[in-house]
Amino acid sequence: MIIGLYVAGDTIIHRTHPGLKLLLLLVISTGVFIADTWLALGIATALVALGYVLAGLKPYHAWRALRPVLAIFAVLFVAQLYLADVWLAAYVVLRFAVLILAATLVTLTTRVSELVDGLMAGLAYAPSWVPREKIALAVAMTIRFIPRLRLQFSEIRDAQRARGLDRSIVALLVPLIVRTLKDADDIARAIEARSVD
Amino acid sequence: METRDIVYIALFAAIMAALALFPPIMMPVVGVPITAQSMGPMLAGGVLGAKRGGLSVALLVLLVALGLPLLSGGRGGLGVFFGPTAGYIIGWIVAAFVIGYLTERFWTRLDFVTALLICVFGGVIVLYAIGVPWSAVVAKVTVMQALTGSAPFIPGDILKAVIAALVIVTVKRSYPLIGARAAA
């Protein structure tokens, strides 16, 4: 079981159709790049902040989204300070922060299953040359196999640790890949035996 | 694309997701963390070939976009695609395709050195050719400055190419997929 990033809730933001949320995200992200002014960025910041409040999210959620990029932000801020001035430095960093928070808002308030369903529903309208069933199969299979692969990875790591090889990345990756490719052949045969194709 | 190819694509995407469990290793001297997961595109291309490798990485990227925390450090969701380094995530797909294409071309005489050169070309040169200009545009800096900012990661990426090349030639010996296809 993979725990998604979804934060459960029943707010207006949670209930909004995922497609509409994605559309709004697209509008905001394109908007701040095309308008490229403090005014546009200010409006976007206000909208995103309002979204977090309406969705009942805590500052902790925003912090968790930004924490991985803080180091890059620091480098970027210093670089812009050196190249231009403190205003441009603040502008560039704030723009990234707002865009990341806007995108994260969609992720935090939309179940993965809703997006997968939306994707599948969208595929129904795709032109006939798009291999719809194959995309659906691949998505479902990957989601199903990630926990199993993670378990296998831990098993192999334990086995190699017993041999004193757990520091060698090659000794971990080769068995993981070869074992998975062998499994893939069995799975493909099993699928074909059920005449999915 | 046969069922078997779809299964390879899906399972390799799952392998790349599992690589996120590797704890990052701190590079000495430059002091930047290197993660095992970014070896994924090199391995996908070098083991599965151009089309299947590229699609496998694209599938991983799609699942991340749908909100699964599959990147190293448990990152995921749409936020990943709006940061300054989003170009590298998109670049992974191209890198896997290029590495796969070259691996197919040189398959019959693929040894460690050839695999290493292919991984460095696709996984470092092609990847940076996408990631660096992308960062420059979205972060309002020049390409040279973006490249300077990325430079500390290059030694780690070359180290990853060495490891990936070792894995690719070892897997080729024990479970070749590209040659088997060419012979069929």
Task: List the topology elements.
The complex is a heterodimer of chains A (197) and B (184).
Chain A: H1 12-15, H2 18-35, H3 38-54, H4 59-66, H5 70-83, H6 86-109, H7 112-123, H8 132-162, H9 169-193
Helix pairs in contact in A: 2-6, 3-6, 5-6, 8-9
Chain B: H1 3-18, E1 25-26, E2 33-34, H2 40-48, H3 50-65, H4 86-105, H5 112-138, H6 143-150, H7 154-174, H8 178-183
Antiparallel strand pairs in B: 1-2
Any idea what the radius of gyration of chain B is? 16 Å
Number of helices of chain A: 9
Given helix and strand content, the structural type of chain A is mainly alpha
Q: What is the class of chain B in the CATH system?
A: Mainly Alpha
Q: Kindly report how far apart the N and C termini of chain A lie.
A: 27 Å
SSE ordering of chain B: HEEHHHHHHH
Average pLDDT of chain A works out at 89
Strand content of chain B: under 5%
Assembly state: heterodimer
Q: Helical residue percent of chain A? A: over 70%
